[in-house]
Design a protein that fits this description.
mainly alpha, Dbl Homology Domain, Chain A, about 0% strand, ARH38 factor, DH_dom, DBL_dom_sf, Dynamin-Rho_GEF
Length: about 220
């Protein structure tokens, strides 16, 4: 109740309020600084974290890339097998076509030799009782059509890639004339064979045949 005591208490209360105000003011000044410092640190950590992840990802890709290539075959075993079968079939096809063309060349060469060395000389000699046309039928027409067929085959295969060699068209183009020509040749075949047997029983005619056939050798 003493006035002096009252003044002392008021001073204490004033000091307490002043201290609280100073503390609160200090917090307001320091909190933004602490917050900005913390935020900057977080961003720094975030940037470092992203950089670390990027570097790790690149190293991982570099490490895994060779393994991915080594474990990924260019083609599957089934594709390799199918390709090998296709190559063998194409090689066989090329061989067959080559043999076909060569056989036709040899056949034409034999016909040409027979006509020049046997048939024409026998006609020119005009031997009695010797029927040249009956013995050799239409072999000259066979020769002409065979030469035409060879020409078509060569046209279909020369300077043409094997997969593009369509030789069936050659036979289709000459199908009709070949049938007509060989029908005649086959029709007279048995008669020609019988005629040849009769000529071989005649020594004079047999000698003529032997002389011209011998020239073929």
């Amino acid at each position: 109740d003493c006035p002096g005591k009252e003044g002392t208490g008021g001073m204490k209360r004033n000091l307490t309020l002043l201290r609280n105000k100073l503390y609160m003011g200090h917090r307001r000044k320091t909190e933004p600084v602490l917050e900005s410092t913390t935020t900057a640190g977080d961003h720094g950590n975030l940037r470092r974290s992203q950089s670390d992840r990027t570097e790790y990802s690149q190293k991982l890709q570099e490490k895994m890339a060779p393994q991915a290539v080594s474990f990924t075959p260019a083609t599957s075993p089934q594709e390799d097998e199918e390709e090998e079968v296709s190559r063998r079939m194409m090689a066989r096809r090329v061989k067959i076509i080559t043999e076909l063309v060569q056989t036709e060349k040899d056949y034409i060469s034999d016909l040409d030799l027979c006509i020049k060395e046997v048939i024409q000389p026998l006609r020119n000699k005009q031997i009695a009782r010797f029927d040249v046309d009956g013995l050799f039928s239409n072999i000259e027409l066979v020769h002409q059509l065979s030469a035409k067929l060879l020409s078509l085959l060569e046209e279909a295969t020369t300077d043409v890639e094997p997969p593009m060699q369509i030789i069936g068209e050659a036979f289709l183009q000459i199908k009709g004339p070949l049938e007509d020509t060989y029908k005649i040749y086959c029709y007279h075949h048995d008669d020609a064979h019988t005629m040849l047997e009769s000529y071989e029983k005649d020594e004079e005619l047999k000698q003529h045949l032997r002389d011209y056939v011998q020239s073929l050798k």
